[in-house]
Amino acid sequence: MRIVLTGGGTGGHIYPALAFASYIESVDEKSTFLYIGSSDRMEGEIVPKTGMPFKNLKVKGISRSLSLSNIKAMALFIQGVIKARKYLREFKPDFVLGTGGYVSAPVVYAAAQMGIPTAVYEPNSHAGVANRFLGRYVDHVFLCLDDTRKYFDEKKIIMTGSPRATQIALLLENEPTVIKPYEKHILCFGGSLGAKKLNEAFVEALPLLVDKSYDITYVTGKKYYDEVLQAATPYVRDHIHIVPFVDDMPTMMRSADVLVARSGATTLVEAAMFGVPTIFVPSPNVTGNHQLKNAQSFVKAEAASLLEEHQLTGQSFVDAIDQLMNDDIKREKMRQAVSALAQPEAAVLMYEAACKLKKGE
Length: 361
Known about the structure:
45% helix, Rossmann fold, 2 domains, alpha/beta, six-stranded parallel sheet, 13 strands
């Protein structure tokens, strides 16, 4: 099968596409891929390193008010559609998948207009602008959360989950156990770049953490590491581990008894697949406040607890952790609830849908 992948701007749009491709390659050695994205965005750095062919498309986000910037964005969209048609005619894909971000809009739209089977993947509770627009034209909409159904035509929806979950399932199959470095372990991180507010709360919490019986690994993000380490130095003990970045996050998450993190779509998938009770601290600085909605969907299932950023202090940070670490029964119930949300067959379902579209079913 020949597949075009498109999506970008953030890791949440890029890595699911790559996870989908990884699964297909494992079951179809003859499959070929083309990734269409913006060379000056994150995908322009990440995708070429995988060896996947990459084509550049220049796009611009649309603001919510009438402006010259929006006129330019529309002009770039039209140009993008024309260029995407050229790429699609040359590659001749059997299927096109958009995983979000403005760059996906002209590509998937062009493919749909050309009669090529198409789908979009939406992992968040609040659907992104590009996917809401494309939902009118695609054959299928792949979703992770029931709360997102309201944005799309019910007839097009397939509840798949994230292809990242399938990657993790294969990891767990090949490495069913992991050696825990600590008897009781808290893992806390604010995403790949770190989170300033979370870092500030951690520093404020340090005097309260020095006498705790559990180990805590705190990931600052490279940008904030020196600043946090300097502030934390008087309180660092053997059970407090401060690092700028974690290269092997799957192993680290598997060793955690409790996770404290933002509630981006990828983190939700990983928490569910690894069965980690989680305290979500949603970022308020995202489109449609979708991280809060993501977290609320897990809280509703009793699969996580919620600590909003406006409630975040050193004391509330420690209190939230202690509520779970001091209650084995609650923690186990949450572990079971979050594990029940795992969707390890996601990439399989997406691939099956693509194959049926190719056959005209």
